[in-house]
């Protein structure tokens, strides 16, 4: 994670989002979704290239209201009660900053560990992962139709 060139990554993700929104099989709308490190980058991508929906699975959401101004679409987040890093303090601060910025945010807490939706993890939780997936598909259906 520490070796990622943020500027290059932001440029690459933004380029792909712009390409996707113009693709002839797309209705002009796009969303980002990511898990853990990718969850934080899902949010970063939506900040660099505004899209219609953002989903963050237990990703780093440390942002200020000023950072959040470029957001265009809604943000949906999933977080784990037993996560020691992406914890209530971080998510509560993010929620407050989203409110300050006037941006819509829905969050769900799961009685699980950090990688609860990763089937390759020993801490995978089938029930929580399935619930989050259903909610994500509904969210995407609402905001990309």
How would you characterize the overall build of this protein?
The structure is a single chain. With 145 residues, this protein is an alpha/beta fold. The chain has a four-stranded parallel beta sheet with strand order 1-2-3-4, with helices on both faces. The protein has a single domain (6-144), classed as Alpha/Beta hydrolase fold, catalytic domain (Rossmann fold, 3-Layer(aba) Sandwich). Helix 1 crosses helix 2. 46% of the residues lie in helices and 16% in strands.
CATH fold-type name: Rossmann fold
What is the radius of gyration? 15 Å
Taken from the alpha-carbon principal axes, the silhouette is globular
Return the domain count. Answer: 1
| CATH architectural group | 3-Layer(aba) Sandwich
Q: What percent of the residues sit in helical stretches (DSSP H or I)?
A: 40-55%
End-to-end Cα distance, whole Å, is 34 Å
Give the strand content: 15-25%
Number of separate helices: 5
CATH class: Alpha Beta
SS-based class:
alpha/beta
User: What's the total number of strands?
Assistant: 4
- Overall pLDDT metric: 96
Task: Encode the helix/strand succession as letters.
Answer: HEHEHEHEH
Multimerization status: single chain
Strand order of the largest sheet: 1-2-3-4
Q: Stretches where pLDDT falls below 50 for ≥5 residues?
A: none
């Amino acid at each position: 994670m520490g070796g990622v060139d943020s500027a290059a990554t932001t440029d690459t993700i933004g380029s792909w989002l712009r390409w996707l929104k113009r693709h002839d099989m797309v209705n002009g709308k796009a969303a980002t979704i990511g898990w853990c490190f990718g969850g934080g980058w899902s949010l970063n991508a939506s900040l660099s290239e505004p899209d219609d929906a953002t989903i963050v699975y237990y990703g780093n959401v440390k942002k200020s209201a000023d950072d959040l101004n470029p957001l265009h679409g809604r943000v949906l987040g999933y977080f784990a009660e037993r996560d020691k890093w992406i914890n209530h303090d971080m998510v509560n601060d993010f929620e407050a900053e989203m409110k300050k910025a006037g941006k819509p945010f829905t969050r769900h807490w799961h009685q699980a560990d950090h990688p609860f939706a990763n089937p390759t993890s020993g801490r995978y939780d089938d029930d929580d992962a399935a619930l989050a997936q259903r909610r994500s598909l509904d969210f995407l259906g609402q905001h990309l139709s």
